[in-house]
Structure formats: structure tokens, C-alpha cells
Design a protein that fits this description.
31 helices; 44% helix; alpha+beta
Length: 733
Amino acid sequence: MTLPNPHPVPMPLFLLLLLLTFSCQRQPPARQANSYASADACAACHSQIAQSYRATGMARAFSAAGPEGMRALLERHQPFYHAASDSYFTILERNGQFVQRRHQLDAQGRTTNEFERQIDFVMGSGNHARTFIHRKPSGDLVELPLGWYAENGGGFAMSPGYDQRDHPGFRRAISTECLFCHNGYPEEETGKLASGIGCQRCHGPGQAHVTAASTGKKLEEIRQAIFNPKHLTQERQVEVCLQCHLESTSRALPYAIRRFNRQPFSYRPQEPLTDFIVHFDFPAGQGPRDHFEIAHHGYRLQQSRCFLESEGKMTCTTCHDPHAVRRGAKAFNSSCAGCHTQVARHAGKPEAQGDCAGCHMPKRRTDDVVHVVMTDHRIQRRPGGNLLAPREETHEDAASAYRGPVTLSPVSKTLQGSTRELYVATAQVYQAANLAEGIRALEAAIAKHQPREPEFYHQLAEAHYRQGNRTGAEQWYRAALARDANYPPGLRNLGATLVELGRAEEAVRLLEPLTQDPIAQINLGRAYLEGGRPTEAIAALQRAIALDDGAPEAWNNLGRAQAQLNRAQEAEFSWREALRRRPAYAEAHSNLGNLLNRSNRWPEARVHFAQALRDPKYAPARFNYGTALAERGEMREAERYLREATQLDGALVEAHLNLGSLYLTSNRAGEAIAPLETAVRLRPGLGKALLSLGIAYAETGRVAEARGYFQQAAQSSDMQIRGAAAQALQQLP
């Protein structure tokens, strides 16, 4: 039996598309220069406030990874074993610098898949958690897998979303939205990151105020030169806090979309929040029930009767002083007593222990960050249940993610007209919650209002892509580029889509100029591979690696290109590098298994095939392993895996062909007909399938059908197939 050579089936290009919240926005022009003062300027006049503010969680929300703070965390640190990914994580100090390292052990106990990144920043105050951040040479930030949590005196565990076998590893991007709520404004000229949230986040640009104070202006003029949120209405005061403390959910919905004409750090507290960002929520009665998440302070507070019935009196600062920390069991009783005159009498009862918040705003374990316990800001009479019970981290997939309408949050109720219509329609498709209805609504809104921003068109293209409509995706990617010919996500994703449409040369022309974009270079490498140009693919993928050597997709595709040129040793190195960055990468395991099998290293190949097969949805691993088993004569097992491949991916032509060929070799010609017919239907001119199907029909006595397929196979471009088909025609009765 001759089976088609096993080969790596390309990973879905959607993995390279930018489909995440906030990721498809342009960077508009920088905010007005010199309007913001130095982060330290305020302390010169407001020393007492500055001193008390330094103790708050906001002030400590982001910092450089300095030796003193890091060493304090590492006092109790031991190598952390993560069972789901079978990996060990360690934080090490080297000459005053700190690195986070991951390694695994093979079957013989030898260290393998070592990988590390320097820790440059720490995100989080430490009141609840700390996340470690690496800054790439490009300046982009990535989250590291191991985090620190304050519970039980402090200890290490996986970062949120990482407690799974194939986690994001050392490559999860820290977006500008993460920085917006953990940091002050970057410096205009240098881009240097501030240490924590600064005064100007709530008081607006302060340079005019500093200038007025330092040049002897009158007190009233100095005060008028800075914004004070206390002069706003209750609703607007709360909005200043909600810029960071409102998140209806951290799961796919979306909870918010920053206005496409705004850059990340352009919000000023003087303006309505909806002018900067539009918030969304689940419809009433839909979505998770009584969910409680780590950024739910404002979201839960607004569900409280105290807040709703305060007639505009209650704000976040009713209980919290933004300039100082209030702690202790009775710290907030005076706030409650402002409305509840019976508090003083009740607080004296033994069961109350003098703590209003302890009973009515208890601490709960958050749903999305399972190692964190926080105060639930939904004020309730008698919260029930075991609110601190440990829980396992849950991960969304296509089956479990919310699918339904997305509604406008009450915080964004002032949104009107075309803006409201466009953003509400966009929210339906932004994270695929309501695709079919959203596509119709967004197409109608775009046709009606013809927005200038390319992001609306791009989101519509993404929605069509998610639905499998590549032609529709191409149409709307091009519409986005018609509004901005240099829009990077549009160029990258249109190029990727053209490759899937079989138009690799068009993709090459589109992607070649994007030499400083690592994702575009990965997609360009794919386009070269699909166009049969492995040498050019290697050059593009090496450029991608030079820009971002942490991308496992670049290393995997580099291995594919090298394998096409029979550079087996280089291909093996590249696939092992891909696995060093992503140990559970099924495609790289499958590709490496193929190479090792062809190199007569079957025991090692089988180990990598076994790893690839741990991905329950990855059909090519089953195809490649089944093909390898068939070549070794292990027909029963080969049939099992080839069948699984065809069931997981009905369009995988080679799997149908090899399954049919296996049946022919096993004298089961009748069973061979169905998979071979499928292969011919999927790829009508495939000579091997036509020839094999002719043989299957001939062996089952259906001579007329056999003759037809032999005649088609005789037109094949493959000389061996033409010869075999001609010989078969001569032998037919």
C-alpha cells in the first residue's frame, strides 16, 4: 500500500488574527503635549496627601521589579509545580535582576523545554495579588505564567487563565487597557512607564496648576487651574472611579469598547465617561447568575439598594478616601451611620462585633481570579452561602461561552443617535456573543451612517471570518482599508484571509511591505509556504523571530519551510524551539513526530505523537499518527486514528484518502468506496484518490464506475498515476 506522505496541516489562520477586545484599534495622535505635570510634582505642595496616598493600592498598582520588593516575595518561594501543564516554575535572582523560568522533566527525569524571561515590572499592589511582567525589546509587555497571591500569608500560583495544560505561557500581551487601570500616564517623549496610578488620573492634566502655583498666582487662580471631582454631580463623580472600577465581566461579551477615535490614555475626568468608552452588560436575567469578579466594585455597588435609593447622595467616596487607606473592622461604620441612624445601637450587639461591612459587604472569592478574596460591594441584608470556598478555575470555550444579545450598560445610557447604533451593533460581534444578528445590525448601521473609522468595517470583517465566510471577510477588510490604507490589523488579517482563499501571491504583495510587524511576517511566511516558496518563507519567518522570538507559530512554520527543503536537522531544531515556548503545542509535536518517524526514531516519534493527541480537537495529529501506524503495518490502530481525523475534520482530504487506501490494503474494498468518494468530492482532480476509487469499484465488480475513474486518473499530471491508470484500463473485462 502506498499512502500519501504525512505532512503538517496548517494551523488555522484565525489564531493569528487579532480578534481580542481592544486589539484592533489604531493609535490616534498623541494627547496634547506638556498638559500633564511630572508624577512627582504634586508632592511639593501636597506633601501630607502625597504621603498618605503612597500607601493606597492605586499608588502601588504598578512598579519596577526592584530587588527589595522582589526579595521580600521570594522569602517563601519554592519551585512551583503546575500539574495541568506538567511544568515547574521558578523565580531566580541574577546580579540584581530577576527571571521567571519554566522547565519540564522527560520520562528519564532529564530537564527539557527550559525557557525563561526577565521580570521587568510587577503589576498589582499586593493587597490581593501581583502579576509579573516582561518587557520585550520592542517595548511590548507580556504577562508571565507564575503569579503571587496574598491569601494565606502569601504564595505563588498560576496567573489568572493559566491553570490549564495549553496555557498562554510567556506570550500573553499586556494591553494598553491593562496599563490604563494599573498605571499613570507614560511620559510623552520617552514612553517611560509611571509607577502606579497618579494624581492626574482623577484630577486631570496638572501642568497648568503646577505652573500657576510656582509662579505666584492667586489662590483662586491656582485652584481653578486643576479639576476637582467633588464639584461634579453624583453620577459624574462615580464615573471618575468607574473608568477603572467597572467591569460587567472579564469573560467574552465585551464589557466595554473604547471609542475608536480615542487613544488609551486620552480620557480626562472632566468629560463624560461615555465620550471615551462605551460599556455593555448581559441582558436582565441572562448571563452568569450572581457572578462576582475581581473588577466588580462599581458594578456590584450599583446593584445595591443603598446606592439606588440614595437619591444621588451615595458615591464611592462616601466610604472611601481616595487619598488614604481606611482599614479595620469599624472603619466604615460612620459612613453607614450617615443614613442608618440605628447603626450605633446595632453595632453594640455581640453578634455584630461593631462591623457593618463585615456582615453586609462580606469578602468573597472571585469567580475569575480564584486565588483572590475581595470585598463584595453589593450591599445586601444577609448574603448567604460559603463565600470563601475554594474553587477551580474555569475556562471558556466555544460550547460554554455566553451566546446571546449584548445590551448597553446604564453607565452609557447617554449614548445617542448614530454612535449608539454603531457601537451597540459592534458589541454584538466584538467577541462573537451574537454573531448572526450582530452582522445584520452592523451591516445596516454602516450602510446608514457610513462611519469614517475603519474599526467598524474591520469588526464586521472579523465577524464574517468567525462564521467561516472568508469572501465576506475579504470584502469588509478591504472596506476598512479604504478608510485607512495603512490600518495594520486590516493589512495583516486580509493577507491571512487571502492565503485561506488560495490566493497566496496576492497575500504576498500585501504583506511584504510590513517588515516591522511580526504577525504580518508570520502570515507572509505562511503565504510563501502555500505558494511553494519555502526559501522566501524562511526569510520572512526569521524576520518575525528577530522581532519577537517568543512566538511559537513562527518557529513551527520555520520548521515546516526547512522540512520542505529537506533540511531535517534545522527543522527539528525549529520545532523543538516552538515547543520550548509552548510545550503543549499540538501541531509542533505532530510535525516533530513525523520528522522523527521518517528518521527511523520511532520510539521518540511516538512520544511526540502522544503529546499531540492530547489535544482532543486536533485532527492532523490523528491523521499523521494513523498514517505512520499504517506504514508500520499496525492497521487496526491506524484505522482508529484515521477515522477520528475524518470525524474531527471532514475536509481533511488526505485522511479520507488514507483511510480508503487502508481498507483496500486490508481487502475491504467495499468499505473503501465511501472515504475515497469523499476525497474525490473534496478535491476532484486528486489522481491518487481517482485511481484508488477505480480499484475499489473494480474489486467490487462495478466495472463501469471503475472505468470512469481510471479514465480520469489517466489524465493526472503524475506520471506514475497515469501509467497505473492506463494499465488498469487494459485489465478491465
